Each structure stands twice: as structure tokens, then as C-alpha cells.
Amino acid sequence: MGKLKIVTFNIRAPYDAVDGINAFVHRAGLILETIDEEKPDIICFQEMSAKIRPFLKKFLTDYDLVGHGRLADYSDEGLGIAYRKDCLELFGLEQFWLSPTPCIPGSRYEIQSEYPRICVYATLKHKDIKTPIRIYNVHLDHKKDEAKVSGIKLVLEKIEKDNSVMSYPTLLMGDFNAEPDSTPIALCNENKSFPLIDLTKDTGSTFHDYNGTGLAPHARGKKIDYIFADTKTYKTAKQMYKWEHTKNGIHLSDHYPVCVELEYEDMN
User: Fold this and answer.
1) Helical pair 24-38 and 52-59, crossing angle rounded to 10 deg
2) Alpha-carbon distance 146 to 200, whole Å?
3) Residue 82, C-beta contacts closer than 8 angstroms, at least 6 positions apart
4) Which domain holds residue 9?
5) What tens digit of pLDDT does each residue of 107-118 get?
6) What's the pLDDT tens digit per position in 145-198?
């Protein structure tokens, strides 16, 4: 039975210097090797910076990459969705800002960090699956709890609205900057209008800060990366694991990419 492999991957934005041996310029080869080994069908990237985006476009030759920056001119760090072009077709794409005015580029909540936050949403059709699948990629604010709550409420409202028009298999994933006992995660787990289930509830920590050698000494060993699925899609999930690849002391990122495999025949 064929499988659909999907990954959420906070790739860590700084390109050089600041992370020492784990600067992106040193991690890049391991990232490409791991993607080539794992061969995921869909990758949701967070922290895709202006330097990392063209690198991925150039070297992920089996994939198309969509998504852009979070500022008003679509520059700076952003989110990306990469999908295998041999088996997946893009049916729809939208990016909106987590703010009271989500259609205005660069907009943000008054109470949040200095960075705008976004959600990239793609509808993809696999050649062997009758029904398209919706993928929502999000990176919530890293400082203000109120902004995290407002942001995830907006995303959940968008998911409910889209599925009220046409119901498709739905996955919500990314870096929520929120631990399992937090309000944003409770809102996802307890969403009644369009129920979601955490496929990654047993991952353990996903943010590891380069195994405690990075720049965040007070935020090590946290689960803040998630993949949620609608109740029907949840039943098709057959495997979940973290990418924990290292090479000569170099890690893929300061987060573990989290991967799920769906048996797509069950989704028809």
C-alpha cells in the first residue's frame, strides 16, 4: 500500500556565523542528504529566510517550493511548502497574516513580538488519491501568549470555513511555540466545529537547541512542533517519528523535523 509522507521542519533561519558549527552553511549538506534519504512527499518549512529560500529552490530538484516572506513587501523570513512534482499537483495556494486584518501583508496583532506571523495554506492533489488534501503551515509568535492564542484561533476559523465550502483531508502543522499543556494546543485539541487530533502527541521534545549547545539555554527540550489531522485522516496515519540525523556533531536544525506517514489508499 502506498504512503504519503509529510514533514514539518523548522529549518532555523540564520545562514552563517551565529550558530557556529551548526550554521546553515554547515548543515545544508546534511539537510539535502536526509531529504534525499527520507524522500518525503510534502515538507512544511518554518524559518525559511531570504538566503535559505533560493538554496532550497535550487537544490531540492525533485520538489516545487511555494511560500514567501512575512513582511509587507513579501521579503524576510517566511514559511514554505515543498511538494514532490512527480506525484503532486498544486490546486490552490494562499498566505495570510495572523492579525485582525489577515489579508493585509505585514499586519500583526498589537500585542505580539516585533515580527509579523503568517500561515501558508496549500491544496495539493496526489496522482493516486481521488481527493485533494489541505495543508496549513503555521509559525506562531514566540513571545506573547495572547498573540499565540489569537493566531491559532484565526487559523482554526480559516480551516472550518474552508471545509464548510468543500471538505477535504486536512493537516495543520508547524512550530506553535507552545507546549502540550498550553492554551493554543488546548484550542486545537478541543476544537468542536472541526475536530483535530494531534498525530505527534508521542514525539517527546522537538526543540533541542542543538542538544543544549545553542543560544537558548532556558528553552531546551520542549515539544513545540505539531502535526494535527482531521478525525478521518488521523485514522490513516501509520507511522510517526522525528528526524534525528547528525553528522560530525552537526544537526539538521535546532528543532527535530517531525514526520508522519499516511496510507493514502484509505483516504479515497
Assistant:
1) 40
2) 24
3) 42, 43, 45, 56, 60, 63, 64, 65, 66
4) 3-267
5) 999 999 999 999
6) 999 999 999 999 999 999 999 999 999 999 999 999 999 999 999 999 999 999
* C-alpha to C-alpha distance for 197 and 230, rounded to whole angstroms: 6
Q: Which CATH number is 56's domain given? A: 3.60.10.10
- In angstroms, rounded to a whole number, what is the distance separating the alpha carbons of residues 175 and 9? 8
Distance CA 190, CA 92 (A): 28
23 exposed, middle or buried (CB, 10 Å; 0-12, 13-18, 19+)? middle
pTM of the model: 0.95
Q: Are 88 and 125 in contact (CB under 8 A)?
A: yes
- Give me the residues paired with residue 3 across strands: 263
| Cβ–Cβ under 8 Å, residues 222 and 205 | yes
- Considering its fold, how many domains does the chain have in total? 1
Check if the beta carbon of residue 49 is closer than 8 Å to that of residue 12. Answer: no
For residue 216, how many other CB atoms are within 10 A of its CB? 13
Distance CA 44, CA 195 (A): 21
